[in-house]
């Protein structure tokens, strides 16, 4: 097969394409296809861990503000493991002194290596708070009785110096690590998200809301659930749902798949809204028949294992770095938020119908090493013009991102389930990366 190049597109000539599809200078893409994405609920074992890790991020930011500690100095890399009646919290932090162990004379306690010791009590409380709010009170995982081990310790001095004393910082902090981050936006939904992941989230949000409110039989649903939606695209637009998969924990052991479907189907239809469900749509509701044992009692959970659920459901690339449990010097988190913010504004400004942005960083270096834009053949302006414009409208150093999006706040627990993107900006400053306040600046920058 002969590769055919077209701008930034390169495809292999295959039998099912007409030769007309390969005219030089035209992008080649499919317009009719099926695409699937999944979501998981707040009670999924991995999401329990994400929530605990982000509950700790919020707690540390709150305490920094309360005690007058500069929130810019906070450093958090918090990982959580959860299994049957056990939670383990580990990682590296730089926290206010109120989180440190004290000797009887009031001085800070240190280990044999001279490192200050973390007082575990408030971290245990944060974990129990998260588990309680999710709704776990079952025998194998109960917020009251779960054992919580805290193995946090101070941030490595070697990493700290790379961030705090970046050689090129000129008043800016360096990136907390190397890596690549992606942002994406498209016109498939009101929030400029891909339809399959958007509706997969909506289904589980509706069910969780009903469960927490105690609505009818929905009150007998458990916290652990997964959804999956397949969308048929016609002429590049979401046309209908062809497959719906839902597995949800239920507390009544007598329920079978039919009973579960009778409970959840109205919420699924409500969540899908105006997106049609195909007449021959396949419904797979609790296909194993019973789902009583759930959460970390059924499967061990870890922070950072649902990175595709957290982002675009596979519709866009992912750099590989997780978000939860990290302060915003970690560009895995902050630069991914910035990339989504920029991509959403590019689409909202009418510069393209689809936009993918890649940013790359090196540890200790303030400015991104590269900025890449792909408009997928939908651009109204050249991609290089958009790349230049992005650097003009936003400082993409870690410091610049944190200032522009106002990220040094306790706003992260709510990001830990139902996606970090496609959410409504909150009055508390949460989801600031979902604002579309760069439209005028972008239009001006690409026209300059």
TrEMBL record:
Cofactor: K(+); Mg(2+)
Name of the protein in question: Methionine adenosyltransferase
Molecular function in Gene Ontology: acyltransferase activity; ATP binding; metal ion binding; methionine adenosyltransferase activity
Top-level EC class as recorded in UniProt: transferase
Principal localisation: cytoplasm
Keyword Transcription regulation attached: no
Subunit structure: Homotetramer.
Domain S-adenosylmethionine synthetase C-terminal: from-to ranges: 293-435
Alphabetized InterPro entries for the sequence: ADOMET_SYNTHASE_CS, S-AdoMet_synt_C, S-AdoMet_synt_central, S-AdoMet_synt_N, S-AdoMet_synthetase, S-AdoMet_synthetase_sfam
Keywords per UniProt: Acyltransferase, ATP-binding, Magnesium, Metal-binding, Nucleotide-binding, One-carbon metabolism, Potassium, Transferase
Span of domain S-adenosylmethionine synthetase central: 172-291
E.C. numbers: 2.5.1.6
Location in the cell: Cytoplasm
Source species: Brucella ceti str. Cudo
GO biological process: one-carbon metabolic process; S-adenosylmethionine biosynthetic process
Keyword Cytoplasm: no
């Amino acid at each position: 097969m002969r590769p055919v190049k077209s701008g930034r597109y390169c495809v292999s000539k295959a039998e099912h394409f007409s030769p007309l599809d390969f005219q030089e200078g035209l992008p080649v893409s499919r317009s009719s296809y099926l695409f699937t994405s999944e979501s998981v609920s707040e009670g999924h074992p991995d999401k329990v861990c994400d929530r605990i890790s982000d509950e700790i991020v919020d707690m540390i930011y709150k305490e920094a503000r309360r005690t007058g500690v500069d929130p810019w100095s906070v450093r958090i890399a918090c990982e959580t493991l959860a299994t049957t009646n056990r939670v383990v919290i580990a990682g590296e932090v730089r926290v206010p002194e109120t989180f440190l162990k004290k000797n009887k004379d009031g001085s800070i306690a240190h280990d044999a290596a001279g490192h200050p010791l973390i007082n575990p009590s408030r971290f245990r409380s944060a974990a129990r708070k998260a588990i309680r709010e999710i709704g776990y009170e079952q025998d194998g995982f109960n917020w009251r009785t779960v054992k919580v081990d805290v193995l946090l310790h101070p941030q490595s001095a070697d990493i700290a110096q790379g961030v705090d004393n970046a050689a090129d910082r000129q008043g800016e902090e360096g990136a907390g690590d190397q890596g690549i981050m992606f942002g994406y936006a498209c016109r498939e939904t009101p929030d400029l998200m891909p339809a399959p992941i958007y509706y997969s989230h909506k289904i589980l949000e509706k069910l969780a809301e009903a469960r927490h409110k105690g609505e009818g039989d929905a009150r007998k649903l458990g916290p652990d659930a997964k959804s999956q939606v397949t969308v048929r695209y016609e002429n590049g637009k979401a046309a209908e749902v062809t497959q719906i998969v839902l597995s949800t924990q239920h507390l009544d052991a007598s329920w079978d798949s039919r009973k579960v479907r009778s409970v959840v189907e109205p919420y699924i239809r409500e969540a899908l809204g105006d997106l049609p469900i195909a007449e021959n749509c396949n419904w797979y509701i609790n296909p194993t028949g019973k789902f009583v044992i759930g959460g970390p009692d059924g499967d061990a959970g870890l922070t950072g294992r649902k990175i595709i659920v957290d982002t675009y459901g596979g519709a866009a690339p992912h750099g590989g770095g997780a978000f939860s449990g990290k302060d915003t010097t970690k560009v895995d988190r902050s630069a991914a938020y910035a990339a989504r913010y920029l991509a959403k504004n590019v689409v909202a400004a009418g510069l393209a119908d689809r936009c993918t942005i890649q940013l790359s960083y090196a540890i200790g270096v303030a400015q991104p090493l590269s900025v890449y834009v792909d408009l997928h053949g939908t651009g109204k302006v050249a991609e290089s013009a958009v790349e230049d414009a992005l650097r003009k409208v936003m400082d993409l150093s870690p410091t610049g991102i944190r200032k522009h999006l106002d990220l040094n706040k306790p706003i992260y627990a709510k990001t830990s389930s139902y996606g970090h993107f496609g959410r409504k900006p909150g009055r508390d400053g949460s989801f600031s990366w979902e604002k579309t306040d760069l439209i005028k600046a972008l239009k001006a920058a690409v026209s300059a």
